[in-house]
Amino acid sequence: MKILGIETSCDETAAAVVSSDPSNPSNPWAIASNVVASQVDIHREWGGVVPEIASRQHVRDICGVVERALDDAGVTLQAIDAIAVTRGPGLVGSLLVGVAFAKAAGAARGIPVVGVHHLAGHIESVFLEHGAIELPAVVLVVSGGHSSLYFVETPGEYTLVGRTRDDAAGEAFDKVARLVGLGYPGGPAIDRAAKAGDDTAVTFSMPRMTHADRNNPRAGFAAEFSFSGLKTAVVRHLEKRGVTTLEGREAADLAASFQRVVVESLLDRTFEVAESLGAKSIGIAGGVSANSRLRADAEARGARTGVPVYIPRLALSTDNAAMIAAAGLRRLERGRTGPADFKVAADIPINE
Ligand code: KG4
Ligand code: ZN
Q1: pTM of the full structure
Q2: What spatial distance separates the first Cα and last Cα of the chain, rounded to whole Å?
Q3: Which residue's CA is the closest to the ligand 1 atom numbered 19?
Q4: pLDDT tens, residue by residue, 303-337
Q5: What is the Cα–Cα distance from 197 to 161, expressed in whole angstroms?
Q6: What is the DSSP string of 260-296?
Q7: Which atom of ligand 1 is nearest to the CA of 171?
Q8: Residue 207 DSSP code
């Protein structure tokens, strides 16, 4: 079966073709194409994503991006068996463009259109890259809008076992980069700057957020992240130095120190939760999983603890439509296609 995935939840217009081969259960999904038109240069001028501009740009880009994804896969719409599209969470105006396009194309072809949860897409990116990883797994999803831990016992079923109580990790990267004057988007800018910095130069204290019921994680959240304090610490650091931005060595030191505490906090919770739930593997997905330190430290910790860590390649970490196609295939495989008249929503439950 061949599925066309469409993703327009934020500032990336993306389309991909993924095929599934049930005769190969250990690695059933193959990416035939994966096209992303990023709006990052458009939003840079504003220092963040402007929702109205984002939806208008999706309208401009969607046809070309889908055509390109079909072309790259060497197929036409006639060869597609189903369409998967992100229906939330995200910017409603942006989501509407993808969903309207998917429903129209699906109706024209008479094929099913499956609405999928954006974070289910990020979780499935791990399975898309690495095939059937050992279950149960704990998957850390770290993006611009979310920092959550999911427990996956059965493919396609996601139990929330940890989350941030304030900012998402990606949001913290973006805000700190803006405060220090490192540019937009903040995650890649901090990652780059940190390479030349000393990660112990600036002291940040990380609050330890552990749910009171940590011994029974299934009864509630096993762990909470908190990143908003780091922003305040950076503001204080700038005030103390009497400057409004940092440059050169100082910027690099701050970036490296900030990145170290965020990565440590993410990995501490993830490995603790994995241990307490008896997880056999760990997955890490979402835009922040593109972070070079997070990738290196997670792999090193996995090797030390004996818990295999699975991270998708960079093109599948940040927003893309191949992961949405994979989440759609998962729903089809489980017979959970959902209603044909599904609506977009800024926030939707992941297992709906
Ligand atoms: O998953 P994603 O592409 O979009 C959302 O669903 O939000 O994640 C975007 C986030 C942004 O906050 C961006 O700064 C962050 O991922 N990001 C990174 C890196 N690359 C992207 N954060 C840290 N290091 C990176 N290399
Ligand atoms: Zn995302």
Answers
A1: 0.95
A2: 24
A3: 187
A4: 999 999 999 999 999 999 999 999 999 999 999 98
A5: 34
A6: HHHHHHHHHHHHHHHHHHT-SEEEEESGGGG-HHHHH
A7: 12
A8: P
